[in-house]
Amino acid sequence: MPPSVSVFGAAGFTGALTARLLHRHPGFDLSVVTARSDMGRRLDDLYPYHRVPLMLEELDLDRHASVDAAVVAYPHGAAAPLVAELRERGVRVVDLSADFRLRDPTVYELWYREHPTPQMLDQAVYGLPERYREEIREADLVANPGCYPAAALLALAPLAREGLIDDVVIDAKSGVSGAGRAPSEKTHFVTADENVNAYGVPRHRHTPEIEQELEALGADVRVTFTPHLVPLDQGELVSCYVTVTNGATDALDVEQLYADSYDAEPFVELAPTPPGVRDVRETNICRISVHRDPRTDRAIVFAAIDNLWKGAASQAVQNLNLMFGRPEGEGIA
Amino acid sequence: MPPSVSVFGAAGFTGALTARLLHRHPGFDLSVVTARSDMGRRLDDLYPYHRVPLMLEELDLDRHASVDAAVVAYPHGAAAPLVAELRERGVRVVDLSADFRLRDPTVYELWYREHPTPQMLDQAVYGLPERYREEIREADLVANPGCYPAAALLALAPLAREGLIDDVVIDAKSGVSGAGRAPSEKTHFVTADENVNAYGVPRHRHTPEIEQELEALGADVRVTFTPHLVPLDQGELVSCYVTVTNGATDALDVEQLYADSYDAEPFVELAPTPPGVRDVRETNICRISVHRDPRTDRAIVFAAIDNLWKGAASQAVQNLNLMFGRPEGEGIA
Amino acid sequence: MPPSVSVFGAAGFTGALTARLLHRHPGFDLSVVTARSDMGRRLDDLYPYHRVPLMLEELDLDRHASVDAAVVAYPHGAAAPLVAELRERGVRVVDLSADFRLRDPTVYELWYREHPTPQMLDQAVYGLPERYREEIREADLVANPGCYPAAALLALAPLAREGLIDDVVIDAKSGVSGAGRAPSEKTHFVTADENVNAYGVPRHRHTPEIEQELEALGADVRVTFTPHLVPLDQGELVSCYVTVTNGATDALDVEQLYADSYDAEPFVELAPTPPGVRDVRETNICRISVHRDPRTDRAIVFAAIDNLWKGAASQAVQNLNLMFGRPEGEGIA
Amino acid sequence: MPPSVSVFGAAGFTGALTARLLHRHPGFDLSVVTARSDMGRRLDDLYPYHRVPLMLEELDLDRHASVDAAVVAYPHGAAAPLVAELRERGVRVVDLSADFRLRDPTVYELWYREHPTPQMLDQAVYGLPERYREEIREADLVANPGCYPAAALLALAPLAREGLIDDVVIDAKSGVSGAGRAPSEKTHFVTADENVNAYGVPRHRHTPEIEQELEALGADVRVTFTPHLVPLDQGELVSCYVTVTNGATDALDVEQLYADSYDAEPFVELAPTPPGVRDVRETNICRISVHRDPRTDRAIVFAAIDNLWKGAASQAVQNLNLMFGRPEGEGIA
Fold it and tell me: ipTM for the complex?
C-alpha cells in the first residue's frame, strides 16, 4: 500500500497544485486536504482544472495526522506550529513556507519575526534536490525552497561552487500567481494587466535564503535581489548579473562549467539562448542559459521555472519522492 | 466662471475616470471627489495614471452639494437616496447607477429590489445622447446607461426604429474592469487571465434596460442577453444576432440604413468589417459594423465601445456637456 | 512492438502537439516528423516546451510512409493528396484538415474549392468519438473535426438527437493559436492583445461541418455561426442559443437530458455554471453547462475546450487509440 | 499658418503614432504620410484607433519635401540617406532611427554597420529635452533617443552628473510593440503571451548610446544592459542597479538629489514606490523612483515610460515643439 499523505492548506495555489499532483501520483495515497478558508467546498469546485474530487476539511489533527507524510502549505509563521505537531506524531513533512529554510533563527527574526520553534531549525533539510539530494532522502522535515531562491540558486550554484562570484545582482520577474490567491489591489486583473513593476524593494524576504545557500556553496556575498510582477499567470525568470572574481575570468568557459554541473540532472535543462518562462510552463524543469559579456567581463545567467511547479508544488513532490524512495520524477514528469 | 461639479464615489473605476475627464475639462470646475472607501487617500495615489491631485473625501453634503452639477458613481440602491438629496438641493445630476434607468418601478423591483425613490423615476432622462439628445439638454437628472445597453442600443436602434427586429440574441464580451474595482476571485488575475466564460446566465440585470429602450424605439421583443468576461482590462463588444421581421428582408439594405442613421453622429463610427475593442480604447466612440447572412436571413451587428468611457465616464461627460450647453465632445474627444 | 506512427506537418501548432503526445505515448512509436517549412530544425528547438527530440524532415514518402499510422496536419487542400498516397500504401490515417470532414463534395466545393479526391470521401469517418466511437474503431481514415464543430456538436448533440433544435445561434470565442503559427497582422501580439473581434462573418467554413453533423443527428437547421478572436493563447468557448422546437419545452428537463447523454463519456464534463476555457486548458475534456431561459424559452449551452487539444491534437490521439485498440484515454489524460 | 510637417515611414508603430499626434496638434499641419509598405492604404484602415484620415503615399521627395519639418521613422541605415536629402532641401528633421544618435562613426560601425553619412553626425543634437533642451531649440537635425536609452538616461542622469556611478547593471522590460510591426515568430501572440525572456544578450545596440550619454554626463562606465520582452503591448521599465562611487554613499540623499534634478521637469515624475508601466501608458511621462539598499550600498533606480510615446513618438513631438518655439507639451499632454 502506498504511503498516505495529507495536504494542509490546500485552498491556496501551491497547496491545491500539490494536491492535484499527489492525487494522480501512483506512489502516494492522498487521503485528505485541509484548508483555513473555504472549508466544505470541494477542491474541484475551487479549481476545476485540478480535478481533485475531495472536500476541503477543517484541520483536525487527530484524524488528519495519522498519515505517513504531509505537505504543509501554510503562511510563514503559521506553518511552524503545525509542522511541530506533525513531527511529534511522527509524520514526515515537506513544508512550503519559509519557516524552516533559514538555519539561523536570528536571521529569520530579522526578516520575518520571532521564530515559533527555533529548536527545530537544525532538523530541517533545505529541499533543493539538485543540492541536497542525499540529505533529503533521509530527512523527516524538508523545507521547500522559495520560488525565487530555487531558480536563483540553480542559476548560480556552478559559479558559487567554483568561488567565482564576487558580486551579484538578481533581477527577477514573476507571474501573478506568485502573489497568492488572496484577492487584492495588487492581484486585481486591472492592476496587473499591461503592467510591470518592481516590489519588495530593497529588502525582499527571499534575499537571506539566497545568501545562506550561496554561502554554503562557497560564495560569501551580499545579494541585490529585486523581484518584478509581470502580466502572466505562472512562470518566473531570474536574470543574474555576476561580477566574476578577479583573475578567474579569462580562461573561464562558463558553458562547459554549466554542462559539467547539470548534465546528470533530470530537471535542469541548459539552453543556448535565453530561456522563456513559456518553455517550462507546468513542468518541474529549470531551464538555464549562461553568457559571458566580454565588454564588462560579467557572467549573465538566466533561469526560468514555473513558480507554482518547480518553485513550489512539483518540487515538494520531487522531495517526497526522494524521502520515500520513489523514482525522483514520478508524478511530475 | 465654469459650472462646479462634484464626483461622488470616485474611488471606483468609473468615478475615478469621470474625475479625470472633468479635472482636465475646460468647461467644468471639478471641486471635490468623495468616496465610500479610501477616504483620505489621494486619487493620484490610487490611480497614478489619472493624475488627479485631489484627496478622496468622506461625503459631507453640506459642503459637497453646493455645486452646479454632480456625477454619482454609487452602487445600485445606494445611489438613489444620494441623488434625491442632491436634487432637493437643486444640483443637476448624472447618475451612473441603474437606479433611474428603468421607468417602471415594478420592473426595477423584479430585477434589483424595491426602489428607494420610485416617485423620482419619471424625472429622469435616459442618458443616451444619440437617442435623447434634446431631452438631455433640459434634464436635471440623467440616468447614464449601463455599458452593455449603451452598446446594444446603438447597435440595434436603426433596425428597431424600422420595426425590423423580430427576435434578437445579444452575446457580449467585456474586459475585467467591467466587474469593478473590488478585488474578488472573479477579478483575480489568475482567474481571468487565459480565460473566457459567461456570467449572469440567464438573467443579467441589463436585460430589462435593453428591452425598455428597444420597445420605446418600436421593437417589442424579449431579448436573450449573455455577457462574457474576456482577459483584457477595458473594452466591450456586443454581437447582436437579429431575426429580421418577416417579409422585410429581401429589399433591405442594412448598410444604407445604418449610414443614414449615424452619418451625423459624432461618436458613432461605421466600419465595413467587424470592429475590435482596441479600435475604440480610451475613446467615447461606438464603432459598429452590420452584416446580412444570406443563408439564415439574419442581420448581424457588432458594436465595440470602451466600457469605462462610452460605457460610463465619457458618456457621463457627454451628457454634462449637453446639460450645460457645452460643445458635446468637449473634454472627451 | 507498438504501432509506428508518423506526423506529417509537425511544424504547425496542432501537428507539433500531436507529435508531443505521441512521443510520450506508451502505445505508439513516433518514428518521424515531417514539415513543409523549418526542415532540418529540431522540434524541441521550435517548441522547447514540447520536448520532442526529433528533427523535422522533408517529406519522403518511401521512407516515411512505412508506418502503421499517420497523422496529417496539412492545410486544407494540401492534405487530400497526401492522405490518398498514404491510404494507397495501407497506412491508417487521422487527418486534421477539413478535406475529409464533409461527405458531399459539392458542399466542400462551395465552402473550400474543388475537392482533390472526392472518391475518397465516403471512406472517411468523422472523428468525434462521442458520436462515432464504433465506426472509428474500424476506420482506416478518420477526419478529425474542426475545433469549433467539435465543441459545438458536443454542446448541441443531446438537443439535436431529441429533435429539439428549431434554430440556433452559435457565438464562439477562440484563443489566437486557432489562427495558426504563421505570423501575420492578425496574430501579431499588438493586434490581438487587449482586443476582441469577430471574423469570418457571415460565412465561416466550419458552418457546413456543423450543419452536416447536426442533420445526421436529426436537426435539419441553418446555423448562424460567428467566431471571435480573444486575447489568450489556447482555449475555445462556444455559446449556443437554441430556439427549442415548439411545444416541447415546458416539460423539458435539459439538465437531465445532458446528464443522461454524457454520464458515461470520459471526456465530457458537465458543470452547473458556465465553464471557462481555463478549466480545460491542456486537456482532452469538453466542459459543458446547459441553461434554460424562462423568459425567452431558449436553451443556452456553453462548451469549453482547448482548441489545440480536444479541438485537434488530443482528439487525434483519442481517435488513434480507438483505431488501434488502445485504452481511449491513453496518453491524453 | 502653422509649420507643415511630413512623417516618412508612417506604416510602422512609431511613425503612425507620430502622425496621429501631429494630426491633432494645433501647432503643426500634417501634410503627408509616406510609407515603404502598405502604400495606398489609409492610415485609419491600418490603425483605426489613430483616426488619421490620410493615405499612405510612396515617397516622392519633390512633392513631400516641400515642408518645414519632417519626422523620419525609417529603419537604421535606411534613415540616413533620406535625412541627408531632407537636410539638403532645408527641411528640419527629427529622426527616430539610430543613425544620428552616436557621435563617433567608428562606434556606429562597430554596433551597426558602416555609416552612410558620417559627415553629418556632428550636426545632430541628441533629442533628450531634459538634457539638451537649449541645443534642440536651435537644431535642424535631432536624433530622437532609443526607447531604452531614453528611460535609462533619465533614470541615471542625476547620479551620473554627480560622478556617483562606479558600475551599473540595467535590466529592462519592454512590451511587444518595441519589436516593431513586422509579424514574426517573436511577435506572434502565442510566442509572447505568458512568456518573459531576455534578448539581445549580451550586446544590445542601445548599449553604446547609453554609454555615450552617460560619459557626456561624467560617468565613464561600461554598462551591462539586458532587455527582456514581457507580455504587454506598450510600456517599458528599466531597473538600474548602481554601484555608487566609493566614499560618496553614506551622506548621499538620493531622493533629494532626484527631487532637485527633476522638480522643474514637466515630463519627469518622481514616485515614492516603484513605478508601473501602466502609470505612464499613452503619456510622454517618465516616472522614476530611486532607492538605497543599505545592505549592499547600491542605489536602485526604476524608470517607466511608454516605449511608443516618450520612447519615440511623443518625444519626437516634444522635440518638434522645442525646435519651432511651441509650448513644450503641446499636443502631447
Answer: 0.96
Rounded CA separation D285/D263 (Å): 13
The C-alpha cell that represents D288 in the structure block: 522614476
pLDDT in tens, C290-308: 999 989 989 999 999 999 9
- Known catalytic residues of D are 147
Q: How far off is chain D from A174, nearest CA to CA, in Å?
A: 9
Ranking B7-11, C61-65, D238-242 by mean pLDDT, the lowest is: C61-65
Q: In this structure, what C-alpha cell is assigned to residue D93?
A: 528633421
Cross-chain residue pair C281–A49, CB shorter than 8 Å: yes
Under the banding of pLDDT at 50, 70 and 90, the label for residue C92 is very high
Cα separation, D248 vs D241, whole angstroms: 16
Chain A residue whose CA is closest to D172: A171
What CA–CA distance (Å, rounded) separates B277 from B234? 8
3-state secondary structure (DSSP) of residue A109: helix
- Report CB contact under 8 Å: B188, A181: yes
Q: Are B200 and B227 in contact, with CB atoms under 8 Å apart?
A: yes
Comparing alpha-carbon positions, the chain A residue that sits nearest to B194 is A233
Beta strands at D92-95 and D69-72: parallel, antiparallel or unpaired = parallel
Q: How many helices (H) and strands (E) does chain C have?
A: 11, 14
Which of C183, C193, C233 is nearest residue D185 as measured by Cβ atoms?
A: C183
The percentage of residues in chain B with a pLDDT greater than 70, rounded to a whole number, is 98
Are D222 and A173 a contacting pair at CB < 8 A?
no
E runs forming strands in A107-235: 125-126, 141-143, 165-174, 197-198, 223-229
Query: Residues A302, A275: contact at Cβ < 8 Å?
Result: yes
Question: Is a pLDDT exceeding 80 seen at residue B247?
Answer: no
Kindly state the cell numbers that stand for A130.
539538485
Residues of C in contact with B233 (CB under 8 A): 194
β-strand pairing of D4-8 with D69-72: parallel
CB contact under 8 A, B283 and D49: yes
Q: Per-10-residue mean pLDDT for chain D, 333 residues long?
A: 96 98 98 95 97 98 95 97 98 98 96 95 97 98 98 98 96 97 96 97 94 97 97 98 79 92 98 98 98 92 98 98 98 95
**Spatial separation of the C-alpha atoms in residues C130 and C136, rounded to whole Å:** 10
Interface contact flag, B279 D194, Cβ < 8 Å: no
Contact criterion met (CB below 8 Å) for C279 and A48: yes
Handedness of CA C96, C98, C99, C101 (dihedral sign): positive
- Closest by CA position to C153, among listed C221, C235, C255, C230: C221
Angle between helices D147-161 and D254-262 (to 10 degrees): 120
CB contact under 8 A, D187 and C188: yes
C-D contacts (CB, under 8 Å): 57
pLDDT tens for each residue of C115-162: 999 999 999 999 999 999 999 999 999 999 999 999 999 999 999 999
Separation between Cα atoms, residue D239 and residue A200, nearest integer Å: 13
Question: Tell me, what's the pLDDT at A281?
Answer: 98
Chain A interface, Cβ < 8 Å to C:
48-49, 194, 271, 275-276, 278-283, 287
Catalytic (active site) residue A147: yes
Nearest CA in chain D to C195: D233
Of D49, D279, D282, the CB nearest to B48: D279
Q: What is the reported pTM?
A: 0.97
Residue B250 above 70 pLDDT?
no
In tens, the pLDDT along B151-165 reads 999 999 999 999 999
CA distance B50 to chain D (A): 8
Q: How close D63 comes to chain B (CA, Å)?
A: 31
* Beta-bridge partners for C135: none
N- to C-terminal Cα separation, chain D: 22
Count CA within 13 A, CB hemisphere, residue A258: 24
